[in-house]
Amino acid sequence: MNILVTGANGQLGNEMRIMTKGSKDKYIFTDVCDEHPESVEMLHKLAGDDIDTSTTKLDITNLEDIRQMVKENDVKCIVNCAAWTNVDGAEDPEKYELVEMLNAKAPENLAIAIKEVGGLLVHISTDYVFGGDPYNTPCKEDQKGTPTGVYGLTKLHGEEKIIATGCDYVILRTAWLYSEFGKNFVKTMLNLTATKPQLKVVFDQVGTPTYAYDLALAITTILEAYKKESLTMNNEPFTKNGIYHFSNEGVSSWFDFTKMIAEYSGHTACDIQPCHSDEFPSPVKRPAFSILDKTKVKDVFGIKVNYWTDSLRKSLGNM
Ligand SMILES: NC(=O)c1ccc[n+]([C@@H]2O[C@H](COP(=O)([O-])OP(=O)(O)OC[C@H]3O[C@@H](n4cnc5c(N)ncnc54)[C@H](OP(=O)(O)O)[C@@H]3O)[C@@H](O)[C@H]2O)c1
Asked: pLDDT tier at 66 (50, 70, 90 boundaries)?
């Protein structure tokens, strides 16, 4: 099967490169930007010199370019790892159209192009589609979206637009993503806990840190399920179409997350203290409680989910 990965030079895209190395399927890794030299170095360190670090240029805001790439390469699945991911930056009113274009219109483009060839779109969404209503139990897939900011709102629009096209789709909502690639909370805190004598971190927002490698494994499991079913599909819809939640197991505040990063890295000299969110003014109010219920993805695809500290320890070992 030929599989197109968009946003391949981001955190999740690079983990997809590692996860699919040696696969019998053909993967085409695309992005608007070139691969970052530090990411190439990390890919070689983690997966050897023969890892595919190539990037085919594809801007997913351009429907005709997507159509052409899908047809020329006989693509049967698209894994969309591209997005506007700067949550604070999305609040700039001048950026709204751009954020909506990337998080809503572009996924719709992918859905249209894959529907035309009768394939599957695996799209990544976010826990930030929730948060506006107060709740204290893990969010299920059918819970009403109540985003608190532009990022979550435009990601919710993206989900709606994909579903409206009628294509085969799996939308995976994830949360608090980190990896060995690019910028993320783990890398920032690794640096700060190594260099600062004292640090304050918010304890009044809880969620689940998620290792992008584990998410990439879940995606390949979903692709295998699709591949198996597509052998006998006969133009019928994929029986597992739907929205799913995936994060690592467990619950943590940003404060607890930082304490574990420091402990596993031996940065014990830094005094880490909890604080309230209002001590760090932000243009967007983030959800106070954003735990995803993963029962559905585990039941439907038989996915086993790692506990967040086990995955954090593994990723830090790689860094
Ligand atoms: N990061 C998190 O904490 C988090 C949490 C929940 C859900 N998610 C979701 O998980 C997915 C993956 O996130 P991530 O952290 O891996 O993202 P990321 O590291 O920001 O990577 C996104 C990639 O998409 C590229 N891109 C931007 N505009 C594009 C376009 N027009 N066409 C094609 N590619 C384009 C980016 O290039 P540039 O760098 O040049 O812009 C970047 O390489 C996203 O859907 C995100 O919304 C992330």
From this structure: very high
